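User: Could you check the structure of this?
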Amino acid sequence: MSANAEQRFLEKSKRLEAAYTLQEGDRVPFAPLTGYYPAGAYGISYYDLMTDPRNVIPGIRKYIEDFDPDLALPPVGYCIPACETTGATFVRWPGPEFGIPNDASFQVLDTTYLHDDEYGAFLEDPTHFLQTVILPRRFSKLAGFASFDFRSPTEFGAFDACAKLAQPEVKASLLAAIQAGEQIIRNNERTGQVYGAIVEAGVPLYFDGIAIAPYDIFSDDYRGLINTVMDIVERPDELEEALQYTTRVGIEKALADAKAAHSTRVFIPLHAGVDEFMSPANYERFYWSGLKKLILALIDEGMTPVVFCEGNYDTRLEVIADVPKGKVQYMFERCDLAALKKTIGDVSCFYGNFPNALLISGSKQQVIDHTKKMLDICAPGGGFIMNCGIALDNAKPENMEAWRETVEVYGKY
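Assistant: Sure, the predicted structure tokens are below.
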């Protein structure tokens, strides 16, 4: 890192630390949660960055040069080589496989991998069910996993289980899994180089770890979003028991991953907790109970949870404010800013939620006016970071520049 970059990093870190600790710094930090923007705005396709994350480094550097954010992160995308090797069925990616344009986003599908009549089998032995039913359904080239059965404790049972590994379909699945593992290791190393490029440019990282809420683990990867919401009414007790399992294993994995990566800031995107999907009472019972345990477990290990509340969250604010003061950071897509300041602002730094639509199609003056309105509500007293509502894929460069300049000038303390 050059001397200038190091000085920039220290200045930004000081500004951020003031916001993190609910104090006023020199000004409100400017930290757009970028998605595809640092790639697409500089001519780098989704296909290129999902094939090799290092392809986005020139775009990241130019984005930082153009807009000088106080936090930055690489675009998120699945590893196309690993998806192809395993025959991933839960996602479609740009390129020839699905005929999706190279510069279009990947598409995650809401698919059911745990059917209505399979709850009993899942709850009896979740690990075995995941291994032999869900994984073969989520990855077509891992179909051989359906033959796995290591539940017998006898020596003969163990030999029989090993013999199944020699079956052609099972061997093919194991080889595919090994190849995908090697591809993921290589992809992670390359992603690390992108993170390194951000820090070398003098910008702190948005986060350095990721965890998933227990409800979302079950909804995203087992049951499907629509079915899980319906289960709240149709089979609440079975759902609650399933969530106890995903809470336990989800926290174990989150802590193990964070410790292995030496993470200090762990990002938790909340996929299914929006106002429209469940009542406040059901939110507390099925969603918040597991999420709070995850948050507290990360805090106990000295990490900062950075919790992204996707969608509308107006009816959840008092519930999620029940966390240790100054130990959690919240981000919001859509929420009443005055209510946010009054509730969350007393216990947590929060990031808010400039409308992406204005950056994409609004006028420069609209961007300036809305930025000032947000700062008038949220800036006083500190603890606020300027952000967009959802991951930013597209925007007019002139609107981005107007947004940044307004924060830098009007957001001074």
